[in-house]
Amino acid sequence: MRPERGDHRLPYLPNCSLLWAELPLTERPAAARAAGFDAIELWWPWSQPVPPSADVDALVEAVGEAGVQLVALNLYSGDLAGPDSGVLSVPGRQQEFHDNLPVVADIARRLGVSGFNAPYGNRIDGVDPAEQDELAVANLLAAAKELDAVGGTVLVEPMSGPKPNPIRSAADAAAVVERARSAGAANVAVLCDLYHLATNGEDLDTVVDFVDLFAHVQIADAPGRGQPGTGHLDLPRHLRALEAAGYDGWVSLEYKPVGATDESLAWLPVPRRAAGPSRPRIHYAGGAA
Asked: Torsion over CA of 283, 287, 288 and 289, rounded to 10 degrees?
């Protein structure tokens, strides 16, 4: 597989929480495979941090039977469709976060997952932001230690939208990652979501300044969060810039399809959908505290 002239060589994977959402969860890995992909990612697919074991088994079996690699998985994040934007920094929700970690680690062992997004969470009225930031780092250290055993990297992602999540820029995420690394968790990195950054007004030409901290990249066009070509972002140019700056990991298609999912993929030639035998793992530095 060779990219078109002027294209990057970074491999793509679909986010199966947004793509093929018209299908049951356990049918989406096979749909991704049928579309030509050999790797996928998922948000946390259940409403609770510890789902029924039968539900976990069904997902693991579906991924295995489809013959795709589950590369990245969100940690439990609360009600993302409702008021929450993660639980990492939210007082009173530590037990949910910690109860989720062994479940995630078990899925990782069974499927070889290497990236784990830990959505930060909202600012809470009446709570000192510094207290929330201390809690976030403590929870990151716990996740990094638990997932170190499976070769996992914990990811911190800037978010857009009306919820009061304070991680809005590449610099915001980098500061959290550097604080966790300074505390001894080497396997923590930035998830660079170009859609969220652009929506927050960040100059995407400057995000390469933080590329050494990036372990995963997600894209959607803006405005609208549709597939490339539905908005105004020059995503190929920004991906070329990231690759030229040293990024060599995955590019996740984390968009809301305009039209049916398969039709929304028409911009991406089928030969560019399979990463092949040299597909990367999400970067792992190791050595959690």
From this structure: -160
Give me the catalytic one of 41, 157, 202, 243. Answer: 157
- How many C-beta atoms surround the C-beta of residue 174 within 10 A? 22
Q: Is 157 a catalytic residue?
A: yes
* Residue 216 backbone phi and psi in degrees, to 5: -160, 150
Contact predicate 237/1, CB 8 Å: no
In the residue annotation, 254 being an active-site residue is answered as yes
Structure-token pair, residue 30 = 């096979």
What domains are there in the chain, each with its CATH number? 12-272 (3.20.20.150)
Task: State which H helix or E strand residue 99 sits in.
Answer: helix 94-111
Q: pTM of the entire structure?
A: 0.95
Q: Convert the pLDDT of each residue in 83-119 to its tens digit.
A: 999 999 999 999 999 999 999 999 999 999 999 999 9
* Number of Cα atoms under 13 Å in the Cβ half of residue 131: 9
State pLDDT tens for residues 112-148: 999 999 999 999 999 999 999 999 999 999 999 999 9
pLDDT (average), residues 55-71: 98
